[in-house]
Amino acid sequence: MFLLCFVSVSIVLFLLAAGEVHAYLDAGSGSMLIQIILGGAAGLVVILKLFWRRILDVLGIAKQDTN
Amino acid sequence: MPAVAIEKHSAESGSFRDRNGRVVYTEEGVFRLLSEHALRQWEALSNTVFFQRLMSEGKIVETERVHSASRALTHSCNGNWAAVLRHQTVPFVSYPYEWCFSMLRDAALLQLELLRAALDEGMILKDASAYNVQWQGTRPMFIDVPSFEEWEAGEPWIGYRQFCQLHLYPLFLQAYKNISFQPWLRGQIDGIDPEQFNRLMSLRDLVRPGVFSHVFLQSKMQARYGGADKNIRATLKKIGFHKNLILSNVDRLRKIIRHLSLKPSQSEWSDYERFHNYTDDDLDRKAAFVRRAVHSRDWNLAWDLGCNTGAFSRIASENARYVVSMDADHLAVERFYQALRSEGRERILPLVMNLANASPDQGWRGLERKSIVGRGKPDLTLCLALVHHLVITANIPLPELVNWLAALGTDLVIEFILKEDPMVRTLLRNKTDHYDDYDLAVFERCISASFEVMERESLENGTRILFFAHNRSKPDRPQLIQNMIG
Prior knowledge:
The complex is a heterodimer. Chain A has a domain at 29-62. Helices cover 60% and strands 0% of the residues of chain A. Chain A is built from three helices and no strands. Chain A is elongated. By secondary structure, chain B is of the alpha/beta class. Chain B folds into three domains: 9-87; 96-258, no CATH class; 272-471, Rossmann fold (3-Layer(aba) Sandwich), CATH 3.40.50. In chain B, helix 4 runs antiparallel to helix 5 (160-177), helix 4 (101-119) runs antiparallel to helix 10 (243-258) and helix 16 (398-407) packs parallel to helix 18 (440-450). The longest helix of chain B is centred in the first third of the chain and has 19 residues, at 101-119. The termini of chain B are far apart. Classes of the chains: A mainly alpha, B alpha/beta. The A-B interface holds A 2, 6, 9, 12-13, 15-21, 23-43, 45-46, 49-50, 53 and B 18, 126-127, 156-162, 164, 194, 213-214, 217-226, 228-236, 239-242, 244-246, 248-249, 252.
């Protein structure tokens, strides 16, 4: 289960846009990402959403992303 | 609320990191200046139900908006501030590196409770600094009201990492590794980071509640993705980071923290009350002596140095507005705190403090965290069964110690224990006795130089002597009641 989540989150990273994290404190990229895993069942939904986007991308039927 | 026309005010020197506000002290109390942005957040906050409820429960410091603040205030600190808030004052400021285990734990649970209550009404705590909690005796109070902000849908919990660094890991350090967290927090102003803490975890530790997720995984994630030049926050928002992710994480953290406890471990001082060598009769006489001194006049702030399990702090609180009890032994402070907490006491604050190396000024230019004496000087200090520890164990010259006490401007109830006494002989074993200054005649000379001895009593065959002394640098108090038994 954890391994699945861990692997899934790795995939997330390929979808991320470039930019700067500006925050009052150092939120930590890894610390934000881990919250998806720590979210339990709700986190799975987020991960599945990401998988789905990726699949659509690969199949070439994704809408143009307006970043 | 009448117009607040404050002419003399001073900015809190340590309040500069948050660009949206400043804390200012005046004769009328503690005020907070808000920027436009902070004002909008305040307006959202004051309309919530949870804020009013938690304030009335004493979990958030009492705060109200000052509608007719003077121009002097709104234009102070190089700003044109949009609004002014007034806060209830904290009797004595303290820091997480002075708290015992259960104090840090209760502070952590309070933060999580507030976070959850805020999320239920569309707000969030933007950070999770342990310095946002202060104490009214044993009641923790959240003081950083501007930390509450509107939660933007999809935002992860930004303060999670900080919560771990300043609360979770120090608690784990104590509960799982039996290592005191106070020196770590004092040395590292931001707390213990995940990568560092993970290196302390053994294979055995990985199965302890909370370690695998909050330590191991977080540190691995951070190591892998921390350097990424990507806007993770914005992306998580886009994919819809749901509030439930935060809520379930918070609930799990609460459960983990609630189940943390100290490993039972003996310390010679937390067993003091069972193994001390005062006869019952002498204990009664000592208590009576302290009580007479305490009731000789009203006191604003009393310090009990080397408080151990706090019996004499309790006596001091009978006639002092507030008592700050300090002991170097965190287990003794832990026991005292738990007892006070179960009684709901709010006028005694127990702190872990090594007087030979007391909390100094810290932070940027030494302005953000104050030294212990910079936070409020006592007018009465109890130094019972302590002098021999500082002089013989910590090697602080006796005149030095007395001078320090005198400089505090405090009156004194102090106990001198002679070298022949078993308590001192224990300290001198395995040591060369070069403590020539540790002598009753020297002690009395030092005391008389700066203090006027009001009462003196011998216990235990004359090897333990109590003194109640009035500080010569203080003006004579007309209300000093002359009921001393000679």
